[in-house]
Amino acid sequence: MTASPLSLLAASSRRARAPSWLLLGAEPLRAACEYASVHWMSHDDLPAGDGHPVLLFPGLALDERTLGPLKNLCLRLGYDAHDWGRGMNTGPEGDVDDWLQSLADEVAAHADRAGEPVSLVGWSLGGIYAREVARVLGPSRARRVITIGTPFAGRPEHTNAGLLYRLLNGAHPHIEPTLQQRLAKAPPVPTTSIYSRTDGVVAWQACVQRSRRRDVENIEVQGSHCGLGWNPDVLRVVAGHLARPVARPPLRAGSRTR
Predict the structure, then answer these.
(1) CA distances from 36 to 33, 52, 241 (A)
(2) pTM score, two decimals?
(3) In the chain, what are the helix, strand and coil shares in percent, each to the nearest 5?
(4) Do residues 117 and 139 touch, judged by C-beta distance below 8 A?
(5) Longest Cα pair distance anywhere in the chain, in angstroms?
(6) Alpha carbon distance 152, 156 (integer Å)
(7) Which of 49, 51, 73, 227 has the fewest CB atoms within 10 Å around its CB?
(8) 3-class DSSP assignment, residue 101
């Protein structure tokens, strides 16, 4: 099964539409304001971490540098935080399931070294990776998933990222129905989706998880898409949810991740 990076940004929601060009045009300025505001953010009321490992996944065409404020926050709170370690996110290469499996194997090895499950935090397309890795690994190695502006419940036409994808890959995005259905289903671990109705890149409806599970939730904030990872309200949500206790099954060192 193959899929484009932009295709992995979507699953299905007929009511959703790509954000207006007005919102898209305001993204750079809004993101810059969010980046500036994070430097004035108070950390005094944030819960201290318990030291468990946290892995961070960047959005499309972004790398570990854009995760700086988020990673620094996690480290400051006491978590063992790392970026995904693959540099710029240009999307999966070749067969998407094989690519995701290789990513899951890397996360599993990280969990084995740490001796406990890993929390996975992904921004935009990175959130798709976080969800799919958690789906492969299950709760023995994935503690929880937090996505930021991740349109797992939409289609490629529900985003304004098509031009960026075509510039990077020279082709139009496509998603197969079976993959579309899978992406829309929450992974088998506590899952939180953070979204903004004023997102200028993806339709906010595509970021809402429809589930009756008590450990699945959607949290709305005010912000842009390109600045969500630096948004103080987002960082507070991430800090609060990482600090939540979870029931942990035993970690079986050396067990297969397939």
Answers:
(1) 5, 28, 24
(2) 0.88
(3) 40, 15, 45
(4) yes
(5) 51
(6) 10
(7) 51
(8) helix
Q: Provide DSSP, 141-196.
A: TEEEEEEES--TTS-GGGBS-HHHHHHHHSS-----HHHHHHHHSPPSS-EEEEEE
149-204 pLDDT, tens digit per residue, is 999 998 777 888 765 555 445 555 566 788 889 999 999 999 999 999 999 999 99
Q: Which amino acid, 113?
A: R
Q: Which tens digits make up the pLDDT trace of 16-32?
A: 789 999 999 999 999 99
| Paired tokens of 146 | 């937090």
Is the distance from CB of 209 to CB of 186 less than 8 angstroms?
A: yes
Distance CA 167, CA 176 (A): 22
Q: Which region, left, alpha or beta, applies to residue 222 given φ > 0 means left and ψ of -120 to 50 means alpha?
A: beta
- What per-residue confidence (pLDDT) applies to 164? 53
| Rounded Cα–Cα distance for residues 157 and 221 (Å) | 23
For the four alpha carbons of 90, 91, 95 and 98, in that order, the dihedral sign comes to positive
The DSSP code for 19 is: P
> What's the CA gap between 228 and 38, in Å, rounded?
11
Write the DSSP symbol of residue 118. Answer: E
The residues pairing with 192 across neighbouring beta strands, listed in sequence order, are 146, 217
